[in-house]
Amino acid sequence: MARAIMARVIAWAIWSVLWLSALSQLAFAAQPVTPGSFELSPHRARYSMTLAKSDPGSPVLNAYGNYEIAWALQCDGWSYEQKLDLTFLRADGTEDRWQATHAALESLDGTQYRFHTLRRLNDYPQEVYAGEAKLDSPGGGGHVTFTKPQQLTLTLPAGTLFPRTHLAQLLKAMANHQQLFERQVFEGDFERPVSTINAFIGRTFEAPLDAPAPAKGLTWLVRLAYFNDNNAVSDGSIGHAPGGGNGGFDPLYEMEFSYNASGISHNLLIDFGEFSLSSNTVDIAPLPPPSCR
């Protein structure tokens, strides 16, 4: 049971990392920055992941792997594909390989979202999520209809955002020099439909000399905390727990990013408390724009 719980929490965190890594391709203008200067650049990126730390008593002794993300601008929205392959060496001597693929399409106005996710543990399918979510209006409530793992429709609370819209609003908060930013986000997870994500936008500093060339320059430090915000209630809606999702309790995990003025990150840290993971950019390639009539 503990093994399954740990795998699920790791999956939630990596799921978030996959779409948040797209922040590394949102273009910043040189300071001063204006909200209108942020645009998602179609691209494909690959990252390597390693264990950053493991405390005494941690269930994870080592971890390594990679993931890939592709954002493409379509005529009717933004599509993205994500591939994850991670191996964990556990304290009991066993080794687990966790793989996930995710494909989604979010409409240009941020009100429609289609998704499909497959997760494997040691090459055996563990979870399959698929469906479509719609909002009544930008910033309004809506509903999500899952077709996998079962047919189920849930009501989304007002203020729910889909991933690409959340990224854009977070970047506007950074451009406006906000220090705190909190939103509810639906990513497509069946077990945890809506998450509260609290962002702390911190100091700026110069990227280290050994950072990849695209990541050099003035850098912003951003730390995100993820809370288990909800459970489906009897009327089919998703309830909001005040005070940061978990009713004010500690977050499920936290992540820390470092972004330069071009939106390129030279550092990513996922903190689970007892252990943490870090990632590095392997390569990034632009994708062509669509040919729309």
Q: What attributes does this structure have?
A:
about 290 residues; 2 helices; globular; 15 strands; 15-stranded mixed sheet
Q: How would you describe this protein?
A:
By secondary structure, the chain is mostly beta strands. It has one domain (2-286). The chain is 11% helix and 51% strand. It is built from two helices and 15 strands. The protein has helices spanning 2-20, 163-175, and strands spanning 43-54, 60-74, 77-90, 95-107, 112-121, 124-135, 142-148, 152-156, 160-161, 180-186, 194-206, 218-228, 253-260, 265-271, 275-286. It has a 15-stranded mixed β-sheet with strand order 8-7-6-5-4-3-2-1-15-14-13-12-11-10-9. It is globular. The N and C termini lie far apart (53 Å). Residues 22-38, 231-235 and 237-248 have low confidence and may be disordered.
Shape: globular
- What low-confidence regions span 5 or more consecutive residues with pLDDT below 50? 22-38, 231-235, 237-248
Task: Give the class from helix and strand content and strand pairing.
Answer: mainly beta
The biggest beta sheet is recorded as:
15 strands, mixed
Helix proportion range: 10-25%
Q: End-to-end distance, in Å?
A: 53 Å
Provide the domain count.
Answer: 1
Number of helices: 2
% residues in beta strands: over 45%
Question: Layout of SSEs?
Answer:
Layout: H1 2-20, E1 43-54, E2 60-74, E3 77-90, E4 95-107, E5 112-121, E6 124-135, E7 142-148, E8 152-156, E9 160-161, H2 163-175, E10 180-186, E11 194-206, E12 218-228, E13 253-260, E14 265-271, E15 275-286
Parallel strand pairs: 9-10
Antiparallel strand pairs: 1-2, 1-15, 2-3, 3-4, 4-5, 5-6, 6-7, 7-8, 10-11, 11-12, 12-13, 13-14, 14-15
